Amino acid sequence: MTIREPIIPAGQEFSYNRLHFAPAFRVGSTVYVSGVIGRGADGVPDDPAAEFALAFEIMATTLEAAGAAMSDIVELTSFHVGMDTIGEFAAAKDAAIAEPYPAWTVIGCSSLIDPKARAEVKATAVITSEK
Predict the structure, then answer these.
(1) Are strands 24-27 and 30-36 parallel, antiparallel or unpaired?
(2) pTM over 0.90
(3) CATH of the domain at 78
(4) Closest C-alpha to 59, from 49, 42, 72
(5) Which of 73, 127, 62 is nearest to 99 (CA)?
(6) Fewer Cβ close by (within 10 Å): the C or N end of the chain?
(7) Per the structure, how many domains does the chain have?
(8) Residue 131 counted as domain residue
(9) What is the DSSP string of 68-121?
(10) Could you list the residue range(s) of the whole structural domain that residue 111 is in?
């Protein structure tokens, strides 16, 4: 039987219990990670580089809860409020994800769930071996 389960890492229960979406969903060896913004307990950092690094840290934690790793990512989609911080975003992505690089789609948008957020990123990962 194929594994099909929502992934709810510690500290992300609000998303599932109140907003009714899973931070990630695992189906067999594929993990679908919901959109992540770089928001911590103190909100979205003022520095875009810190915001984007935090988003990828949250994504890594979510993938680990599913038995996956950043190296398992095969596809990224990022949503950006303006493109003026794309360089900082790309640097955070490159620091978090090594070769082989995933497919990546960049989409501009007018706003995100947190008005201070500059980008949101979602991913699909395929687990190549149990971690």
Answers:
(1) antiparallel
(2) yes
(3) 3.30.1330.40
(4) 72
(5) 73
(6) N
(7) 1
(8) no
(9) --GGGEEEEEEEEESSTTHHHHHHHHHHH--SSPPEEEEEEES--SSTT--EEE
(10) 4-126
